[in-house]
């Protein structure tokens, strides 16, 4: 463990690039209603629902409740993953939980159309390759086995979780606060389970990236998200240098949290930068190639909507 963590300290020292903290784009104080803020979260809930349901059962959201998508296009590239029985049961439960979340938000606020979601093997491989800094060989496939699926899952619920932590202080109404508190609880539980399952396998190497261990890969994914988010360190892997561990007393980091062991928060802009993979809330791509939906995401898109993106995407949204 000690040796492993030394390597990781070096990686973090090289990769972590906390910039632009305190700039306006790191502030969640944008002009948005409570409903706008939960609608923004729907983008992540749709993404998780599709990835978990399809991965565990082979069926996407439309097979369970098509009205929740509100006419938005089905995702591209999601498929049933080759999961061991326990992982399958866990992911299947997460998938149903996401349907519940979509229903809760839709029943209270009316909901928004599902955005186009890119869950292709290639999209995950592009993100993973960027995190590690080299091309996977064979190509990284999130659907190939339980370990790859969990590594891919490491990318998404955590972002939703930080988004809820970031949104709650700006909420006004009791009913919406109660809703988001409930969403946050389950979302953070999902993240914790995924991290625990990966933690148990921290020393295994990921075949597609040669000798890279699971712990190293989680660090690299977290570093990538920190770089894309552009608001400093808000994301930590499973094994960290002491100064990032709880009370500076441990290098084990099964939960990612700040120096007070409180959850990190992220703004809508940071989440868009990370999920688009462009580091720019105005430039769609990555998981949401035609942009996220709802007033908040569209506000940023409209500000900087490039002709190319608008022509390609406007018909679908
Ligand atoms: C991982 O390897 C380290 C160092 O060899 C060891 O101390 C640790 O117990 C291992 N962890 C697991 C979960 O196997
Ligand atoms: C948010 O911005 C408004 C308008 O600029 C300001 O009045 C308010 O105090 C800010 N709230 C916080 C929590 O920063
Ligand atoms: C789909 O979800 C909506 C919103 O919660 C609900 O009204 C409807 O009954 C659900 N349909 C099915 C088939 O479960
Ligand atoms: C999904 O992502 C992959 C990898 O970037 C890309 O090749 C593909 O065109 C994307 N699909 C859509 C529909 O955007
Ligand atoms: C741990 O170290 C970091 C960085 O040196 C510092 O900011 C933080 O306050 C320390 N935490 C505790 C509990 O001493």
TrEMBL record:
It comes from the Eukaryota. The keyword Flavoprotein does not apply. It comes from Arabidopsis thaliana x Arabidopsis arenosa. Keywords: Signal. Residues 1-21 form the signal peptide. InterPro entries: Pigment-catalase-like. This is Desiccation-related protein PCC13-62. PROSITE patterns: PROKAR_LIPOPROTEIN (PS51257). The keyword Metal-binding does not apply.
């Amino acid at each position: 463990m000690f040796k492993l963590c030394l390597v990781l300290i070096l990686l973090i020292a090289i990769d972590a690039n906390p910039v632009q903290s305190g700039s306006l784009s790191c502030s969640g104080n944008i002009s948005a209603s409570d409903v706008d803020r939960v609608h923004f979260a729907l983008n992540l809930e749709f993404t998780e629902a599709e990835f978990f349901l399809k991965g565990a059962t082979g069926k996407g959201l439309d097979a369970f409740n098509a009205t929740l998508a509100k006419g938005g296009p089905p995702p591209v590239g999601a498929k049933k993953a080759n999961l061991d029985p326990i992982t399958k049961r866990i992911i299947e439960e997460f998938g149903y939980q996401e349907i519940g979340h979509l229903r809760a938000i839709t029943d209270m606020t009316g909901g928004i159309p599902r955005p186009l979601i890119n869950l292709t093997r290639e999209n995950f491989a592009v993100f993973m390759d960027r995190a590690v800094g080299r091309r996977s060989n064979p190509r990284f496939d999130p659907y190939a086995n339980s370990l790859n699926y969990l590594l891919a899952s490491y990318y998404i619920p955590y972002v939703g979780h930080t988004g809820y932590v970031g949104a709650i202080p700006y909420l006004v109404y009791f009913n919406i606060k109660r809703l988001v508190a409930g969403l946050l609880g389950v979302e953070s539980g999902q993240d914790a389970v995924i991290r625990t399952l990966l933690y148990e396998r921290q020393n295994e190497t990921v075949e597609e990236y040669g000798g890279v261990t699971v712990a190293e890969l989680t660090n690299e994914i977290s570093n990538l998200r920190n770089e894309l988010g552009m608001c400093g360190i808000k994301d930590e892997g499973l094994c960290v240098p002491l100064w990032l561990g709880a009370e500076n007393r441990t290098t084990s980091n099964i939960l990612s949290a700040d120096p007070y062991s409180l959850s990190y928060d992220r703004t809508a802009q940071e989440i868009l930068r990370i999920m688009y993979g462009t580091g720019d809330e105005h430039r769609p791509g990555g998981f949401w190639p035609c942009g996220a939906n709802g007033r908040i995401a569209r506000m940023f898109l409209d500000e900087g909507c490039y002709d190319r993106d608008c022509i390609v995407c406007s018909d679908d949204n």
